[in-house]
Amino acid sequence: MPKTSLPKISQGTLDIEDLQLLREGAHKFGVELSEKQVSLFALLLDGLCLWNRRMNLTGISERREMMIKLLLDPLVALPYLPAGRKVLDVGSGAGIPGFPFKIARQELEIHLLESKAKKVSFLRNMIRTLGLTGIAAYQGRAENSFTPSGLFPSYDVVTARALAPLRKTVSICSPYLTQDSILVTFKGSKVNKEIQDSERLLEELHLGLSKKISYRLPETGGSRYLVILKKETN
């Protein structure tokens, strides 16, 4: 994308209701957000809304729904992430969950892997806009044998959101897992069937179901599930 066409993002702001929803929602997930972190989330939300009018970052167009489903939702995983580790966000797209992870846990070293050049432009622009360090965006596909320069051979945490059904997600992400690594995914109502359909592959890859946690997002119907798989000894 030519530099002149990059959308300009102003200082992010949240109205009082959105601010309260974000903080209270994060608190319920065991995450306390500072003033600085809230301001970064607001700036990220502005960027998502602005860039989404230029390209198909996400099918969600309403600002409050974006905040709930893209910014708040990933925070449920934070209490289960090991401290100070390397994280790979596969099929990062709009930078979810990578950006929320980084804003809330700045000690994490995060790589965003995305196949589409325009979305990589967004990711890199947002990294600069947010002033984040210890995070980088790479263009490529995890399932390809070619690894973009800069990626690590393996990661402590690999995460994917809205990438594919669990079986395919496991197949795509497993090459980046090593002993004691975890794969963090976010699932909906079909979670049990997805786990059942993946059982044989999980056994072959020495992946065990570490956690399946049910939770609800505000102003949405139905339960969601945080599914964490752990790489066991071969």
Query: Given this structure, which CATH class of the domain at 76-231 is correct?
Result: Alpha Beta
User: What level of helicity do the residues show?
Assistant: 25-40%
Low-confidence stretches: none
CATH architecture of the domain at 76-231: 3-Layer(aba) Sandwich
Distance between the termini: 44 Å
Query: What class, by secondary structure content?
Result: alpha/beta
User: What general form does the structure show?
Assistant: globular
Order of helices and strands: HHHEHEHEEHEHEE
Question: Could you give the count of β-strands?
Answer: 7
Quaternary status: single chain
CATH topology of the domain at 76-231: Rossmann fold
Determine the strand fraction and express it as a percent band.
Answer: 15-25%
Care to describe what's here?
With 234 residues, the protein is α/β, with parallel strands linked by helices. It has a domain at 76-231: 3-Layer(aba) Sandwich (Rossmann fold), CATH 3.40.50.150. 36% of the residues lie in helices and 22% in strands. It has seven helices and seven strands, in the order H-H-H-E-H-E-H-E-E-H-E-H-E-E. It has helices at residues 16-28, 35-52, 63-72, 98-104, 117-130, 166-173, 191-204; strands at 86-90, 109-114, 135-139, 155-161, 177-187, 207-215, 224-231. The protein has a seven-stranded mixed sheet, with helices on both faces. It is globular and about 50 Å long. The N and C termini lie far apart (44 Å). The mean pLDDT is 90.
